[in-house]
Amino acid sequence: MAGYAAFNSPEQIGLQDFIQIHQQQKDKNLAGDSFSAAQLSEFSIAIDATATAEQIQAYSDASFKKLLQPTNERLWFVMINGAPEGILIANDKKPVKMGGKNRSKDLLKLYHSARGLAANDEQVRYVEFEGQGLLLVLSGEAESVFLSQGLASLLQLPEGQVQPREVIAKMKARIAPTSAQQE
């Protein structure tokens, strides 16, 4: 029965949806049935949510992890022949979101950099801010932040590893104009 449960897990259901959607779209970059060889990465990354805009604005610490709340969601990479073709986010009940090839390549590259600093996968966390991602490595009291291309561009910081306090400052700066407009 364990195999049956695993096949019907939220991430496996999401993978089947991913395959079906891409086969229907007849992706021109791949041969017609290449998506049938898709599989999930052997690891997944826990996803944390950020604090509210008001909490971020009022935050005065340099630790990024104190701005986060754990969720029951995880991120997997959809792989075809060892190459990332998309991402899949699922919680413990259902698939939640799918992402494209470019985002998956960017995040997998970041994951390999982040994983080099982590003793295990549970020390690597995925976080989104304004729809763009970052990876956070939590190792004891130490923390390292890795910005995706999209978030680096949004925050006007370099892609890859960045100091947590720089990211927090830039997040506050992005929030400030929207908070002022709401008043």
Summarize the structure.
It is built from six helices and nine strands; from the N terminus they run ααββαβββαβββαβα. The chain is α+β, with helices and mostly antiparallel strands and 183 residues long. Mean pLDDT is 88; it is low at 1-5.
Sheet-strand content, in percent, reads 25-35%
- Most strands sheet: 9 strands, mixed
The tally of strands reads 9
**How many helical stretches?**
6
In helices, the fraction of residues equals 25-40%
Q: How far is the N terminus from the C terminus?
A: 56 Å
Rg from alpha-carbon coordinates: 18 Å
- The residue ranges in which pLDDT falls below 50 over 5 or more consecutive positions are 1-5
Q: What global shape is seen?
A: elongated
Question: Order of helices and strands, N to C?
Answer: HHEEHEEEHEEEHEH
Name the structural class. alpha+beta
Question: How confident is the prediction overall: mean pLDDT?
Answer: 88
Explain what this protein looks like in three dimensions.
- The chain is an alpha+beta fold and 183 residues long.
- The chain contains 6 helices and 9 strands.
- Strands 1, 2, 3, 4, 5, 6, 7, 8 and 9 form a 9-stranded mixed beta sheet that branches.
- Strand 3 and strand 4 form a beta hairpin.
- It starts with a helix and ends with a helix.
- The N terminus is likely disordered.
Structural features:
single chain; alpha+beta; elongated
Describe how the helices and strands are arranged:
Blueprint: H1 2-7, H2 10-25, E1 39-40, E2 45-50, H3 53-58, E3 68-80, E4 83-90, E5 95-99, H4 101-115, E6 124-129, E7 132-139, E8 142-147, H5 149-155, E9 160-162, H6 164-182
Parallel strand pairs: 2-6
Antiparallel strand pairs: 1-3, 2-3, 3-4, 4-5, 6-7, 7-8, 8-9
